[in-house]
Amino acid sequence: MLGFDYDSSYPDTDPYEPMPGGCCSWLPFFNEGQIELPVTLPQDHTLFTLLRQDGRLWSEKAGLLRRRGGMALLIVHPDYMLEEEPLRAYDRFLRAFADDSTAWKALPRQVSHWWRRRQRTSLEMVDGAWIASGPAATEARIAFVAPRQPRSKA
Question: Considering only CA atoms, which of 2, 25, 30, 28 is closest in space to residue 12?
């Protein structure tokens, strides 16, 4: 209602809140006219204060998100990043992806802009072949993937 282009108020999952939950999405989605960019990595306070972890969870989940085609979004707060170990963990996380040319290190407004272009792009059958048509057509890649077979119950 306020005219914002995007928002990052929802975690994908957050079992540690007084009312546990989340939006259950690793990808941006439309919330009426606004793009929601879900926070997909644990927040600093949760990770370092509540769980007493060392930051490896950020890298582990970022790897999982990458393998599944999800978006890794991390929010850190300056008031929780005053101690050496959280700062070292954050530095390690950033360095892990700094030289990775396959990771899109985008600003939230860039992700929102792309997601809107993606929404206005569709697939069309032209001369027996599928093509992308629309504002993100030049960025699209069409791939055919066999469906996963159900796991056998052993």
Answer: 25
